[in-house]
Amino acid sequence: MGWIPEEIDLTRPSAARMYDHFLGGSHNFAVDREAAAAAERAFPGVRLAVRANRSFLRRAVKYLVGKGIRQFLDLGSGIPTIGNVHEIAQGECPDARVVYVDIDPIAVGHGKRILADNPNAAAVLGDMRDPARLLDEPDVRDLLDFGRPVAVLMVAVLHFVPDSQDPWSMVAGYVDRLAPGGYLVVSHGTNEHFSEEETSSFETVREVYQRTTSPIVVRTSAEVAAFFAGLDLVDPGVVRLSDWRPDSEERWKSWCCGVGRKPLS
Ligand SMILES: C[S@@+](CC[C@H](N)C(=O)[O-])C[C@H]1O[C@@H](n2cnc3c(N)ncnc32)[C@H](O)[C@@H]1O
Predict the structure, then answer these.
(1) Backbone angles phi, psi at 7, to 5 degrees
(2) What is the pLDDT at residue 44?
(3) Is the minimum distance from the CB of 78 to ligand 1 under 6 angstroms?
(4) Which backbone phi and psi does 113 adopt, to 5 degrees?
(5) CA torsion angle 247 51 216 192 (round to 10)
(6) How far does the centroid of ligand 1 lie from the alpha carbon of residue 256, in Å?
(7) Is the C-beta atom of 160 inside 6 A of ligand 1?
């Protein structure tokens, strides 16, 4: 199988490959499917959550294209699947530029393959926890002009950065580089709307992710709102996934999300 890089540890589940499995993709292994099944047994809503998350991503990108954004930096972009950011953005506006970044070699390897003929998009292997280094990557510098508005997407990825690594400062490292009119998009796991039973089931999910390459942490919506420090929150603010400018009847309560814009002055 040509899409499997040599450095992959096939004995340890990966959050990227589990997510791919939840979305019905094929870039995952038995170890990922077993971990995904354990998470799903404990918490049957997990598939609905990842679909609701993808749906939020689609709505947010369409919103931003409608606001004139033509540059996207998608951090923790995952294994390419249906509804990738470049497909949404370039579908509306062919000259839109997109750089995907992920720490998972399979996500990036597959991304490079599907983007080989796309001069306006690139996939970069990197760790978003080092903003200065990442923003200096040749593909990022070549494709994105931070002198003009860029949308930085951190969708379903900040819950892989523990408080001890200060994700708020890390996000500020990107926000500081945004030109006025640039945007930050965040979705994040939260359990604050859970019943007692759901909270205990979610503990099992957390334990499953503890065994992966990306242990998971959930935060309150107030902690998520703090990622938007210095930005103007787009209506309706930090809300549950399916309450952010919904275009369907789907309802999902366990994650929250928001979009913030860097003020013009
Ligand atoms: C749940 S997936 C989300 C994919 C996509 N953003 C979405 O919402 O559909 C999270 C991704 O973040 C990646 N990731 C985790 N920690 C990361 C880090 N420090 N730097 C870059 N990517 C990271 C994982 O490899 C995984 O592919």
Answers:
(1) -80, 0
(2) 85
(3) yes
(4) -65, -45
(5) 50
(6) 16
(7) yes
pLDDT value, residue 2:
60
Quote the strand ranges of the chain, DSSP E.
Answer: 71-75, 97-102, 121-125, 151-155, 183-189, 232-233, 239-240, 255-261
- Confidence at residue 174, expressed as pLDDT on a 0 to 100 scale: 98
Give the bridge partners for 183, in sequence order.
151, 261
Q: From the CB of 15, is ligand 1 less than 6 Å away?
A: yes
CA distances from 6 to 1, 20, 30, 213 (A): 11, 20, 17, 16
Nearest CA residue ID for atom 26, ligand 1: 16
Q: What CATH code is assigned to 15-261?
A: 3.40.50.150
pLDDT digits (tens, 9 = 90+) for 29-80: 999 999 999 999 988 888 888 999 999 999 999 999 999 999 999 999 999 8
Pair of tokens at residue 182? 């640039």
Q: Which of 87, 99, 101, 102 to mutate to test the pocket of ligand 1 (most atoms within 8 A of CB)?
A: 102
